[in-house]
Amino acid sequence: MRRREFIKVIAGSAAAWPLTARAQQAMPVIGFLSSRSPGESAGVVAAFRQGLREAGFVEGRNLAIAFRWAEGRYDRLPGLAAELVNLPVALLFSAGGPPTAFAAKAATSTVPIVFSAVSDPVEIGLVPRLNQPGGNITGMAIFNSSLGEKRIELIKELLPTAGVIGYLLNPGNQGSAFEANGAHAAARKLAIDLRVMNAKSENEIDAAFAAAKPNVNAIIVSGEPFFDSQRERIVALAARYGVAASYAFREYVLAGGLMSYGTDVADMYRQVGVYTGRILKGAQPADLPVLQSTKLDLVINVQTARMLGLIVPDTLLARADEVIE
After folding, report:
1. How many helices (H) and strands (E) does the chain have?
2. What is the rounded distance in angstroms from the CA atom of residue 231 to the CA atom of residue 79?
3. Domain 21-142+264-292, CATH homologous superfamily name and number
4. pLDDT of 214
5. Torsion, CA 77, CA 82, CA 87, CA 89, rounded to 10
6. How far apart are CA 83 and CA 173, in angstroms?
């Protein structure tokens, strides 16, 4: 009996389905490598699929996707990237920031790579330039260094008397040192004492919040994939310790967080889905400039502010793209 090869395709709660070797030859297979977990990534996966549809690719019809999830453990990414390259795949999509993108880049110099949500990709050495990334890699960038400065300004506007602000960073993320430098520079302009809080595990997140409570007036949480996968835990810790916290993404505020300023994540994944489709049609990653996310949203949860005993200034509410009552 001829042996049949199968690729397990899993996305969130979607059912797995088998793909025979003959079917693999009939349609391209994308490797979807993520540092996150499938359950909390359902929204971005849906947005990615939407972008693929806009480019003319529908999963199961003329495209297959093989998913690999690191579940927040960055040390698993190199092995998972190698698995996908060896399937083989026609393209490797790296979701979840710098750790995933660097793992994909290390795994192959020939398979096209599209990355998403990578902060400051030139500064951290992922690509040499934005307009002509060169090689086999392109994608979409976010700029946490500059956005961190804006988040500090916003939390200071909400809490004018705040003199000490904590900044939660994951030292396992290649962009953390660069982001910390930008945050310190921004804090000095506002005469704020910035305390970097490092955490790269659930226990370290818990410990960081517990240690910060007596010493800081507010906390800014970096737009970092592991933190994003732990957003409900982080929001709950901020509530438990009664600390005002600002986040990078709207999803934190929907989960009960106080305020967010940053990229529309779903729109970003939709755009890189379109990019992926262009490469599947023959475009070369080296010729496609790195996209820069320009859609930024300020979201404020007024109910959470009341629970913290805060009054949000009318000037801040007027600038908000969304106010959650």
Report:
1. 13, 13
2. 26
3. Response regulator (3.40.50.2300)
4. 84
5. 80
6. 22
Separation between Cα atoms, residue 264 and residue 281, nearest integer Å = 26
The string over 29-41, giving b where at least 16 C-beta atoms fall within 10 Å of a residue's C-beta and e elsewhere, is bbbbbbbbebebb
Q: Is the peptide bond before 121 cis (omega within 30 degrees of 0)?
A: no
Residue type, 172: G
Give the DSSP per-residue string, 143-199.
Answer: -HHHHHHHHHHHHHHH-TT--EEEEEE-TTSTTHHHHHHHHHHHHHHTT-EEEEEE-
Cβ-contact 127, 149 below 8 angstroms: no
Tell me how far apart the alpha carbons of residues 161 and 47 are, in angstroms, rounded to a whole number.
40
Question: Does 144-263+296-324 match 21-142+264-292 at the fold level?
Answer: yes
Q: In one letter, which amino acid is 307?
A: M
Q: Which two tokens stand for residue 187?
A: 């804090």
Can you tell me the distance from the alpha carbon of 269 to that of 204, in angstroms, rounded to the nearest whole number? 29
Q: Which CATH superfamily is domain 144-263+296-324 in?
A: Response regulator (3.40.50.2300)
- C-alpha dihedral over 159, 323, 269, 267, to 10 degrees? -120
pLDDT at 20: 42
Q: Which of 325, 279, 284, 321 lies closest to 302, judged by CA? A: 325
CA distance 131 to 141: 12
| Chain centre distance of CA 224 | 6
Strand order in the sheet with 291-292: 64-69, 29-34, 91-95, 113-119, 137-142, 291-292
Residues in CB range of 145: below 8 A, 6 or more apart: 119, 120, 123, 178, 179, 181, 182, 183
Mean pLDDT by 10 residues, the chain (325 residues): 36 37 67 92 95 97 97 94 97 94 97 93 93 93 80 94 96 88 90 95 96 92 90 96 95 96 90 96 95 89 96 96 94
